[in-house]
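Notes, p. 3: input format for complexes.
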Amino acid sequence: MAILETVVFAFWVMLPAYVPNNAAVLAGGGRPIDGGRTWNGKRILGDGKTWRGTAVGTAIGAALALALNAIAGDVGNALGVDLPTFPYSVVVALPFGAMLGDITASFLKRRTGRERGAAFPGVDQLDFVVVSLLLAFLVAPEWFLETFTLAVIAVIVIITPVLHVGTNVIAYRLGFKDEPW
Ligand code: CTP
Ligand code: MG
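Output follows (181 residues plus magnesium ion):
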């Protein structure tokens, strides 16, 4: 695959993992997952991780994956890129893994004394990628190895932080987010 095709391919397969965190920002609120509980005097996760944000983020990411499946053939033809479709297990694993990665990052932030909303450079940008890919691999190993070649993973590791920083700055400027990260 040429580099531009690989970028298109990588962006396509990661869309169901990219969208949930942004959807959660819009849908967040309500009961925090940790129920306000603390561990060693610090919140387990914090008020920024809610049931509603997690459920809505996962649902929107899964719906998007199904929509992408429906149009993969046409879009692939139009772009001249062989776009994959997501097995049903992966339809759920990518968005749920993204949410779980973000939750894991909050857990680590609280353990390291970072308040809600504090930046954790590196972790903030890649947490959701690592866990969504890990879950996708666990539920559909053959599909994963066919789809996520080393070149695709390399492109993901490069474009994800750029997209993450970009979308968060936009969400911040529009007033949807309290901090630009
Ligand atoms: N959100 C949510 N549930 C999630 C993830 C996010 O409700 N599982 C919502 C919350 O309203 C949160 C906002 O999206 O405040 C922004 O998400 P994020 O930046 O991940 O959370 P922070 O508030 O910055 O908290 P943390 O420091 O724990 O990341
Ligand atoms: Mg944050």
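The mean pLDDT is 96.
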